[in-house]
Design brief:
The protein is mainly α and 441 residues long. It is 65% helix and 6% strand.
Length: 441
Amino acid sequence: MERLHDLVHRHDPDGVLDLLDGRPAHEVADGLARLDPVDAGWAFRLLDKDRALEVFEELEPVDQQELLAGLRDDAVVALVEEMDPDDRARMLGEAPAKVATRVLAGLSPAERAMTAALLGYPDGSVGRMMTPETVAVPVHSSVTEALAVVRRKGAHAETVYTLPVTDAGRRVLGTVSLRDLVLARPDTVVADLVDRDAPRVRATDDGETAARLMGEANLLALLVVDSEDRLLGLLTIDDAVEILEAADTEDAARQSGATPWSGHYMYVKVTRLARTRAVWLAVLLLAAVLTVNVLQIFEESLAQVTALALFIPLLVGTGGNAGAQAASAAVRAIAVGEVRFADLPAVVWRELRVGLLLGTLLGGLGLVVASALVGVQVATVVAVTLVAICGWAATVGATMPLLARRLGIDPAVVSAPMVTTLVDATGLLIYFSVARLLLGV
């Protein structure tokens, strides 16, 4: 990266091309994304047409848009024209409306129609991510005839390894793999090879759900059909991986109390990163006022037994960590389809037991440590509180994401930071309630 940066700044085209020659497209794309837009555009224009397209498709949409902004209109049209329809739709779907309209207007009628069709599906749906360029083989054709179709149309398809099998009305009957066709006898009928149980999804179905289905079924491509089971396209494994990466990135941002953002981390403006985090920090700050209110309510108890104050950070920290662990596990289980809202009672019972078990372990350890510091009485309060807080925090942490999903809210939004803030306030209530019960303060 340092070498590329130096060569670009010295405007050494031969040195840049020598450095990038033979490197994988994703490495070149990462290097360009780390440059400022002007330098990235200069380096990108040095690449030949085929290499430039390969690298361009590896860039994130926000980086693609910055590169396009520095190219001439004819160069933009030529580059976007050669992109796969699904990659083109992904980029234009995140571009400003004026930019998308200008780029679409410059495409050939066929490419414009395919792209417009994909953009017509809801954002986040399989239809936005699928490739409409497929090779379908007739169910009653022979292997020889099917392979002839693949040779004739395969150059224009994104993949030929998984082939949809259709009837005369283009309704999907299943799939056949290229491997099976190549290894079968030439006179074998495709109907004898077709996998009629191949999974399929509607174009309007959620893209993340479809991508996870591909992982569960070990598929290279997933059939995408309309309401009458007519073939619309395929969701390929490379697009499925990108969908899951984007979903995991979004969940990671939300679980840390930030708004998701796109682009290369090293070159996103500091003000933009701050904006993605500011809103949630402000919300959590206001929520933390609950903790202050609880301390005010039990001010007299603290005055009588000042040793109680020593363990407040320990207790709220432990409760927050236990809740965050349970919330992260629940969000992951929801994302991969392992739990549903109907499983809520079972989840509560499971996490309550896990929390109590952890609390008992930590409570025993806390009893020993606290006894040496402040005596057995306060140590007993701390130990009992640890058991109760861990049980409560684990239950809340696992429950809130399920309730959020039921209300149509992204479960990641109410995960670790929100759970931690809630457990902080309620944990103090538990702590001082136990103190009043055992110490009479």
